Amino acid sequence: MAMITLENLAHSYHQNPTGDADYALKQMTHIWQDGGAYALLGASGCGKTTLLNIISGLVTPSHGRVLFGDRDVTRADTADRNIAQVFQFPVVYDTMTVAENLAFPLRNRGKDAGYITDRVQKIGQMIGMEHMLKRKARGLTADAKQKISLGRGMVREDVNAILFDEPLTVIDPHMKWELRTQLKQLHRQFGHTMIYVTHDQTEALTFADKVVVMHEGRVVQMGTPEELFETPAHTFVGYFIGSPGMNLFPAEVRGNQARIGDQSLELGADYGIPPGRLQIGIRPEYVRLAPEGLALSVTRVEDIGRHRILRGQVAGHPVNAILHEGEALPDQPKLRFEPGRINVYADDWRLAPTGV
Q: GO MF annotations for this entry (predicted)?
């Protein structure tokens, strides 16, 4: 296992990049701790797979270095990095049995036959295929083959890191939760450094200790699920995390007051007079119906079983609120934002209150 350092890393697929727009990955420096479970989360095309491939050695970065511990592996071959990688689509050997597929990485490294048998049994049980170990891989379903691929990626105990590139895409939805749980248990048991690429926030938040949110080639925030929810560092994080995502409003900010259109509200902290394009963000969970507050134009109310979602507009801007069970909607509803839960953004980046 190894601590992974990305030092002044950037990458462009253009031979002669001239600006940020030509870079698939903008410059970044990050340290990923030995034994951590990380999820790379973002929309398609944000740079997740490029970054994963740089870590694995499939892509050499245009700038910067990749270090495993103190060792510079920037230009080292994938085979020299001592990693395991599981891809989006299953890669299995159809002529081999399930057991032979799982054992393949261990046999390649000359492991003892007894050890191989023990590990194959353990991994076979973990992926729910212990009763199929003697079956040929040919003819198995796509999700069964992907489970074999997952198992083969995890069968080695001596790797620096295990990299997963959207590994549950072809897995039956009913199996996804179980496999995510098993991956988490495996991480706790063996302490491998794991990096998991996904565009699914549920996968990322349930798997990872730290979620690395990417947007347009940048890491816009690395944090725990709670940090991403409560204090999104960038408006994209607020929008992308949560269902519904964070409400965002263009605003004027002066001290502890904000104005949305011709309506004002308390911010709960002093932000001075910040420059830039200003927005305030509030999670739907912290928007309340109140006797006094912001005038609301209701669009509809959606009942999704666990709760109801109120959708409407404030000063011409869309807003979502979570209604509590049994909460009645008045004829002329008004909204109150919990002051301590409001985030202020300048040019999409979160501002800290003055003096903090």
A: ATP binding
